[in-house]
Amino acid sequence: MRAPYDPRLPLDGLTRRTFLRASGVVGAGALLTGLAGCSWTDITKAATDNPLPAGTPILVMVTMYGGNDWLNTVIPVSNPAYHDARPEMSYSHDEVLALDDVTGLNPGLKNLSQLWSAKKVGIVRGVGYPQPDRSHFRSMDIWQTASPSTPLTTGWLGRWLDAAGSPEPLLGLSIGPVLPVLAVGATKTFAALSVKEKSNEPLVTAMAALGKSDPTDSEAARLVASSYAAVGTVREEVVQHLGDVSLPDEVTDDGSLKSQLLTVAACIKLGAPTRCYSVSMGGFDTHAGEKATQSQLLSAFDGAIQSFRTAMSGHSRETDVVLVAYSEFGRRVQANASQGTDHGTAGDVIVVSDRVAPGFHGDQPSLTDLDQGDLKASQDFRSLYSELLSKVLGADPSPVVGSGTTPTSILR
Amino acid sequence: MADQSWQRTARVMRRAAWGVTGTAVDAAAASVGAWVDDALSASPDPGATKTPPPTFAAVPDVPKNATKEQRQARNDVVRQQGDQLVTWWLTRMLTATRPVPERITFGWHQHWATSITKVRNAPLMLRQNELLRTYGLGSVTDLAKRMVMDPALMIWLDAEKNTKAAPNENLARELMELFLLGVGGGYTETDVKQSARALSGWKVADDGAVSRDAKRSDPGPETVLGVSGVNDPLTLVDAILAAPAHPRHVATRWWQHLASSEAPAADLLDRLLVAYGPSRDARALFRAILLDPSFASAASSLVMSPLEWVVGSMRTLDVPVTTDAVKQAVATLRNLGQVPFLPPNVSGWPSGASWVSTAAAHTRVTAAVRLSKAADLSTIANASADSRIDAVAHLLALDHFTDRTRAALALAKGDPAQLVATALISPDYLVV
Question: What top-level class would CATH report for the domain A13-401?
Fold first, then answer.
């Protein structure tokens, strides 16, 4: 198991860099061009000046770092091969939350099971890519850059921003202090909002002055300066007019998925001009003692989604939100000796929305016809991206994921 | 005005050491080579002697039928020992007379990133830390062979769970991917699987003693990276170290740790590999990196990590190392996401530019103000208003400030603490 994941530090800098370096592509420094930190104040101002038009679909991407064991998440409970492969850590019929006769959800996903019954959940099965890579870093890069074969310096949602050509700096917003590569484009990046924020801090004027660029700045110095630049745009007076939508009390600086999603809910309700949010949760790398650990993680994941849905409940934008949760890979079918699983390949993607065509999409890969002990993907994740781009973000998928993909039909 | 040799010396010192002042650069500028040799030497360190590592009381396992309270009580002790360990290392970093070996130890910790959150055993984390300190300037062959048998690393990467009946590939994969060869280092999935077999069957006892259980291990021998006869951790390390990707990986990672976020160019890499040599000499590698002509001539391109910034600033400003100051330093590092012994994952902390892509500026400002207030800034206060900014530059071992930063500093000229705090958060200081 890798360390319990700290959402303030996504598997980002070094790892992406390592991959790019190994592939002979330029260093990550250049990727961060135009990086914009932003504050809650910036968002309230933007929501006042340029609110998102009513009825605009909103994408919330949830990255589950570590490689979630999807076989113990969306569980083929009636399949004998499932129990044979992991006798010590399989779930029985009695334990799972039944989705249909043969499949059940992990018992940690109680809220999701209710949402499934309410027809708000789509589960896309067996998602992966050709020639799967079992390195966390490489595979997460592949999912986030949407480029399995050729290393790219940009993420798929970053390229969406590039192509959108919008002057709105908050069109994409990542919650947390570090940008994941999916949010980095060639000319634009998502803004980054950290929940942790204090007003009335010292040196505000100095920071604004340090935020200017200097002709002799190195690349690194320019990046440091740009991290202060946003401070100069803070308009204190806007804070006075926050109205009844402010960061909810339960949003703490713990970096949890719940805090991140509650921040997203606050932004959406405020009318922030943001069409895509990126949030994340880590810790899914369950090499040992998986059953208890994963169930706790999924329970936290489930609780975060429930809090988010509750926060949005009854709001006019509630039905505009499409939440999509994915991980860099699933895990090996066979358990290891430590009641855990090693890195695998294809997995599910969970979509929660009033706009989803509810139910399963695509086929669960065979548990017996395997590739080196791993599932064979039944669909390509780029088809899913294609669908999200065209149906949620209202964009042409081809500049982002190429022209060869067929959107799946998971959204209504 | 600073001349070229002063400039080069300042850069070498700021990157290699923590807490360099202009006065220290003045003293070393005549021969940066002599400074590097001394900094990397194994001379005695009175500051380190004065901060011996903590001794930890044994924390026995609770019985199987233990109550919730008993488990909680044990967890509390484990956590307290962990806090004690972090506090100790930070204190050592702040008080070591010779900071370079300590900085190298931290670099190896970043390389073999192991977190106490999973190991949950301060004595074993300390043992690994001492191992990195003892062997960090020697042969990487020795270091790697001890690390592959290090109980903390073994717990961290599930080595104990890896048996003949059901292999666990975690340690095997990271040995190649992160520690010794790097992504794209010429190994295959088969090599990972074979390596896991060669590492199978090891146990870590409560006291950290490691042993191999023949019943649970794969008898082998395996073939790894084309080397046959691999049947235990030590022969596995030999096989991996012999791969051509190994020296390139170590040299590249350290170049990027000490010099530049960019990978070294081919001719530079060749020079580093010659220094590293067949004996895999870490000290020679560090010396070659620090004294390479391109080290100081490269455009500044490394952003200080939070730990370098906090430790370096406290040492430079000579902030008294009180219990409270260390506690606050840990809190700052926690907020900035870089507490020693708690790397976010096995690949260590993100490097360079990732730290500034954060909304961490607020934490940095608060800490900079606190440190400046705690420091004796009489040299700045006593300087005339016109020369104060230059005095700050000299204090921080910078040969000059950019016009942008001078303009920001001018806003705070009347208040030495504000002035120094502004300098500490400036791009000029944060980039080494």
Answer: alpha beta
